[in-house]
Structures are given as structure tokens and as C-alpha cells.
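dude i think i finally got it to work??
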Amino acid sequence: MVVIPDKNTNFVNTNGMKVIALNPRETAGIAYIKKMGGLHLDVFPGSDNLVLGAIARIIMQNGWKDSDWIKKWVNNKWESNSGFGQGTRNTPWQWRTTWGKFQTKGYEDYKKWNLKQKEYDPKSAAKKAGVDVKKLYQAAEWLAKPVNGKRPKTSIGIEKGFYWSNNTGNTNAISSLATICGAGSRPGQVVGRFESSIVSFQ
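look at this
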């Protein structure tokens, strides 16, 4: 979810895809995305973390999280410390060498933490970020709200300016949002660095 350069916008509005761009500036690429029905979160520089935390809160409060994905792939602190992690890396040495010490005790612990953060209140975050709060709710719906019982396929892409500006905070925020939405390791659902950074979903 972040910076979309002025180039490589031919992916917009293909096969029902919607795009959200998180960028302080309205570039020519973002103007095209908006023309094709996309959403521009025109935030103040440095406020990405607030906006991502607020969007995550909206998703969690509405019960739009990807429960199946979380159950299968998100482990708690005991599991990772004991070497009984989720997913394909399931030996003690792999988990101990690839996980740090600063994780939560699982999804419910992250949710509890997020809800305690005053700055992640959508109205507060929107005000500090200089963006219309309605856009945060719209982004949350596009990213995670099921339609006719079917979850949207969400992919999240980031680019250097996003994580170089506030590396740990922004990386944690976008990773948490991606996890809540179930982005990653499935057809049509990825999270990572893209040449043209986008959030897309069908």
C-alpha cells in the first residue's frame, strides 16, 4: 500500500482490480488511478503508520479479519519461542534463528494492543495525517470486507520511500495490516516490495 510512481499504471482497473495509493503527493500516476476508480490516501509525510494502524483497527472492529489465514499462519509467542511455529518453518532452530524477541502473543494480543493506542483511533489518525476519515473506512472496506460471503483478494506492495522513512514502524504496520487481510502466499494475494508499489484487490 504506498507509493505509486508515475509509470507502470497499466494494471489499474483490470479484472475488477481496485487500487489504493498512500502518498503525500498526487502524481500523474495517482491521478490516473483516481480516474480509473482508485483511492488516494493523500497523507501528510511521516503519518503512514497512523493511517495503517487506524485501517487495521477498523478491519478488526468490524470482524473483517481473515480468520482462516490467521489461524493457519499466525503463531503466538510460546509457539515461536518453543519452535512450534505455524507454516512451513516448523523446526525449533528455524524459528529461533528467524524470529526476534519483539512479537506479540498472537492475533488477539495484537488486537488488544492496537485498540489501546489512542493515535490509531480513525478520527485522530485522519486529523493528524491530514486525510478525510471517510477514506480510511473506504480503504478498510476495500481491503477486507467480504462481499456476498467472499473475501477480497488483497495484495500489498511497498517501495523504498515507505520503509526508509520510518523503517521499523512502517514495516511493522504494513506487515500487521497484510496479516489481518490475509495477504501473502496465495494466488492473487501477495505482500512485498514491488517496483510500482500498490495495494490491489478484486
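The domain at 18-74+126-201 is CATH 3.40.228.10 (Dimethylsulfoxide Reductase; domain 2).
im so relieved honestly
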